Amino acid sequence: MVHFGNDWDEVLAGEFEKEYYCRLRQFLKNEYFSRTIYPSMYDIFNALKHTAYKDVKAVILGQDPYHGPGQAHGMCFSVKKGVAVPPSLLNIYKELKEDVGFVIPDHGFLESWADQGVLLMNTVLTVRAGQANSHKGKGWETFTDQVIYHLNRREQPMVFLLWGANAKSKRQLITNPKHLILTAAHPSPLSAHNGFFGCRHFSRTNLFLEEQGMEPIHWQLPME
């Protein structure tokens, strides 16, 4: 049984007994036994464990986890300290620098965002080593749809940052007019010049939060 250690346990109660999740769990057991899968099975739900339902101010939706050794740890776009900053995250840093004067750090660990209520979740939570989108269509999309469904129902406003086609596909689930939806191209080097650079999503997120009487996100990351 999955245990988050916060109010997601109540919000998602019963989800893990549903037929689709039982099929997904069996698929994952086979995958983790026979292949190299990222992240570690103990890190799959780190985003939800780290950012409680009641605390979410902003949701950054990625595609699926990094598929290189030592990169994915259960929070989209983040890597632990000591791991080289991946190209997509470097592009996020470049946009942050242009948008809010962000000073680019020497690491890619985004935990301080999660601590402030930024839910860093991919649309698919696992991946085979070296094979992007290899766990697409196996059931994770149904699970993350449920996460978005419950967030959408919440009365307290939040911002949804949807980057790339996989994330934008969730837009139809966000119907509550209290929330702000921001969409852009994925920050990957393949697409960042198609509308991610210049999107100013970070300042726009904070402007919205402040208009709602909420604390803005301190985007600057701690230096080593």
Q: Could you explain how this protein is built, in words?
A:
This protein is 33% helix and 11% strand. By secondary structure, the chain is of the alpha/beta class. The strands form 2 sheets. A 4-stranded parallel beta sheet has the order 3-2-5-6. The relative contact order is 0.17. The model has no long low-confidence stretch (mean pLDDT 96).
Rg, rounded, reads 17 Å
Structural class: alpha/beta
Low-confidence stretches: none
Per DSSP E runs of 2 or more residues, the count of β-strands stands at: 6
Strand order of the largest sheet: 3-2-5-6
Order of helices and strands: HHEHEHHEEHEHEH
Span between N and C termini? 36 Å
- Shape category: globular
What proportion of the residues form beta strands (DSSP E)? 5-15%
Mean pLDDT: 96
What level of helicity do the residues show? Answer: 25-40%
Compact summary:
It is built from 8 helices and 6 strands. The protein has helices at 8-11, 19-34, 46-50, 87-100, 111-115, 140-153, 165-168, 201-211; strands at residues 37-38, 58-62, 118-122, 127-128, 159-163, 180-184. It is an alpha/beta fold and 224 residues long.
